[in-house]
Amino acid sequence: MGQDSTPPGGPLSAGRDEPLWTGAFSIVLVCTHLSFATFFSTFTTLPLYLGDAHKWQIGLVVGSMGLAGMLIRPLAGLWSDRYGRKPLMMIGTGATALSLAAHCLSDDPYILLPLRMVNGMGMVLFVTAAFTTIADIVPADRRGVAFGYLAMMNSLPQVYSPWLALTIARTWGFTPYFLTAAAVAGLAFLLSSRVSSGADRGRPAEGFSAAALVSRSTLLPASLFLTIAVAFGAIQAFLPLMAEDRGLGNPGLFFVLYGLVVVPLRPVVGALTDRHGRAAVFLPGLAVAGLAMFLLAAASMQGMMLAAAVLFGLGFAAAHTALLALTVDRADSEQRGVAMSTFGFAWDTGSGVGALTFGLMAGFVSYGFVFAMAGVLPLAASMLLVAGSRLPRSAAPDPAG
User: Is residue 209 part of a domain?
Assistant: First the structure.
């Protein structure tokens, strides 16, 4: 994983003649879109399907997907490196399809709980392998724009999938909805099987160790992403409550506007990272996200809340896309799966810890103070990096990768 002599965080230059839009790249993008469409579709349907279950049971079933995914994510990266990307993509999409179809059997929360956990494990296996496949097959100097398109494909379904799923469930019933969602995941399974063997990786199994589950080279970008993930966790947990408390209107508008900013911006900021370097994009991204949290903390009218949504969307899209590309730059070609799982674990931890920590804090301070504290993290991270002149460098293409 040697590094070149480009300026800190500077652009890559090798591989310009290699094509980006290959068959494998297109298939992975489509599979990612289909998989996330099934994921977001449960946001509006699963709580209603549980019906008369106790609130704590609904929370347990809904949240169990994230818990199961968090537990298996480190292993997903290790398995991806040792046994190949394609098998994990197929196992992940297959498990998702079967678990969604099995939801039709009962609305009992104790039956749905293990099915939901299988769904979560399947999603993590697929996402880890799919993202690593992209890292394997795209030219090194196009990684930024490649991951921009990939992130766009997993963000786009949140614009339409929850609404469409609820429409199907209310019009034809929950069984047709779950079968439709299972069919969509099944299509992703079939397409995953079409990923060419040249896009797959794998190496002989080695001895297991806890250290093998974490990519040390990824700790810096993962830690930086953690700061913005914590802020997002605070938004998810407390924006609706603050909006009601301050009379800011429908908080759903924040997420709609945020999504409308993030989705089309992904490839744009990705291309900027390839041209100007990762640090030139993620540093202002972190700073803008932090400033957005301060604006949200001070919001006294709906316009301020929506302006914060635009700023946070800009910051998140820039920081996440650039840091994801930087993760691949810094990872050894034989440990890209572990690198992706380490980076993904930052999201699991950040969003969960953000909601939990600030939830405890919110019992003693105002919502505004919570958002301001969340804004300190990404803003301080960007300032400390600049002040210390410790801008991470993009890696030269790995000859083995």
Answer: no
Distance CA(353)–CA(363), nearest Å, equals 16
Select, from the ranges 54-68, 71-85, 309-323, the one with the highest average predicted confidence (pLDDT): 309-323
Q: Six-digit token pair at 225? A: 């992403």
Give the three-state DSSP class for 3: strand
User: Of 154, 177, 201, at which residue does a domain stop?
Assistant: 201
401 confidence band (pLDDT: 50, 70, 90):
very low
> What is the spatial distance between Cα 119 and Cα 56, in angstroms, rounded to a whole number?
20
Query: Same structural domain for residues 220 and 334?
Result: yes
Residue 105 has pLDDT above 50, yes or no: yes
DSSP 398: P
The enclosing domain of 115 has a CATH number of: 1.20.1250.20
> Could you tell me the CA-to-CA distances from 30 to 152, 153, 201, 241 in Å, in that order?
11, 7, 20, 36
> Rounded to an integer, what distance in angstroms lies between the CA atom of residue 237 and that of residue 228?
14
Structure tokens belonging to residue 186? 């099944």
Give the integer Cα–Cα distance in Å for 289 and 228: 7
**How far, in Å, CA of 177 to CA of 36, rounded?**
15
Distance CA 292, CA 368 (A): 12
C-alpha closest to that of 229 among 172, 142, 289, 309: 289
**Residue 395's beta-bridge partner residues?**
3
Interval 219-240: pLDDT, tens: 888 888 888 888 887 776 677 7
Range(s) of the domain holding residue 179: 23-201
Q: Which amino acid is at 347?
A: W
Handedness of CA 284, 285, 291, 295 (dihedral sign): positive
Classify residue 13: in a domain, yes or no. Answer: no
φ, ψ of residue 60 to 5 degrees: the values are -65, -45
* This model's pTM is above 0.70: yes
pLDDT in tens, 60-76: 787 777 777 778 888 88
Q: 197 versus 246: which is more confidently predicted? A: 246
Q: How many CA atoms lie within 13 A of 331 on its CB side?
A: 31
- Average pLDDT for the chain: 81
